[in-house]
């Protein structure tokens, strides 16, 4: 939270670190009692509904980052050396891309059920790791057997406990 009286006198006008930035805050009504505030540097040509649609289009990207952090375990690294950090990040990105490609090709029987279903992505990442050790398994069949119902509008706070870096030699 920044107060309207916050001073930024450590930035000298005219220095290379100083630049002006303009933004606007748009408040969107989501339901009768729920609002969402968006901060944007887009000009007034974009209506609040345009901004809401743009935000909605970003949702796939947001869930990809969530999967990278939590499902592919990119939230916690196993090294402190920069070259090995890059190696670990690239390995996880390759894992993510390969697994999501498999998930996109999985076909599972559409039965008449109360919910629509989707592949359990976290389990797909685990199965991919297993597949790398034993390529004789039918990974597509295994992935298609782990499905979850799609429940629209679920909102609850998830408790997340942070843990720090733990190198391999301390485990």
TrEMBL record:
Domain Transposase IS4-like span(s) in chain numbering: 38-98
SUPFAM superfamilies named among the record's database cross-references: Ribonuclease H-like (SSF53098)
Pfam families per record: DDE_Tnp_1
InterPro entries per the UniProt record, alphabetical: RNaseH-like_sf (IPR012337), Transposase_11 (IPR002559)
Gene Ontology BP term (one): DNA transposition
Molecular-function GO terms, alphabetical: DNA binding; transposase activity
Entry protein name: Transposase
Taxonomic source organism: Ruoffia tabacinasalis
